[in-house]
Specification:
Elements: H1 2-31, H2 48-55, H3 69-72, H4 77-82, H5 88-103, E1 119-125, E2 137-141, E3 161-163, E4 167-169, E5 173-175, E6 182-185, H6 202-228
Antiparallel strand pairs: 1-2, 1-6, 3-4, 5-6
Length: about 230
């Protein structure tokens, strides 16, 4: 009997030891998960306040909570919550944009090469004479420079084109006074993904809300009919 009890006790100890070992391995694997890379700023997005301004939804009011670019892109959702980034959908939106930025999926102006004080200058460039093409291009040029260089050298930003003879069109492009060209400035919500608008409480509450509306309308009609007979 004593031998059987001893064997049973040893079996329980071995089982418990294996359980703790597996749990420890799981925790170890969790801690070794690679940390998401920290992307580099681009000319149109040189710092945290500009990034938060571009993605909109009022996130630029939290700019003071992030001491540096690396600090922002190192934070997790629980850490953002500790900093007071509320509600949860705001944290999700910020994390989604951080991931988009890591992948290079930027908004208008994200591929500008020449930016000064939050402004990018666009000018009209034509192909070299050797090219049998009479098209015109919208190119991003340094401040104070012209578009005399070859189009293959200058930056041709996505989403901007020449319309007519001397008009550059594209997101947030404003014509330059007196000269052909345009300026694009960092603007609040320039990259913002607009939130959908719930109609009648959204899909889950739509039937209930519409029923209450019809009930209120019928009640108002009955009251109006009763008053008309008085």
């Amino acid at each position: 009997m004593k031998g059987e009890r001893l064997r049973a006790s040893l079996g329980m100890l071995l089982q418990t030891s294996n359980t703790f070992s597996r749990a420890g391995q799981i925790r170890f694997l969790h801690k070794t998960r690679p940390v998401p890379p920290i992307p580099k700023p681009v000319p149109f997005v040189p710092d945290v306040p500009t990034f938060l301004t571009l993605i909109g939804r009022g996130l630029n009011k939290y700019a003071s909570k992030f001491p540096s670019w690396d600090a922002l892109f190192s934070l997790t959702s629980p850490q953002l919550r500790e900093l007071g980034i509320e509600p949860a959908r705001t944290r999700r939106y910020l994390l989604q944009w951080m991931q988009r930025y890591r992948k290079g999926a930027l908004g208008p102006g994200g591929d500008f090469r020449y930016v000064q004080n939050g402004e990018a200058i666009l000018k009209i460039a034509t192909p070299p004479a050797a090219m049998l093409h009479d098209g015109k291009y919208a190119v991003n040029v340094p401040h104070g420079d012209s578009a005399d260089a070859a189009p293959s050298v200058l930056s041709r930003p996505v989403g901007y084109r020449v319309q007519g003879l001397r008009t550059i069109v594209g997101p947030y492009a404003t014509p330059l006074p007196g000269v052909s060209g345009a300026v694009v400035k960092v603007t609040e919500g320039m990259w913002e993904h607009r939130q959908g608008r719930k109609i009648d409480g959204g899909e889950r509450r739509r039937a209930e809300v519409q029923f209450k509306k019809r009930s209120a309308e019928r009640r108002a009609e009955r009251e109006a009919e009763m008053l008309s007979h008085l």
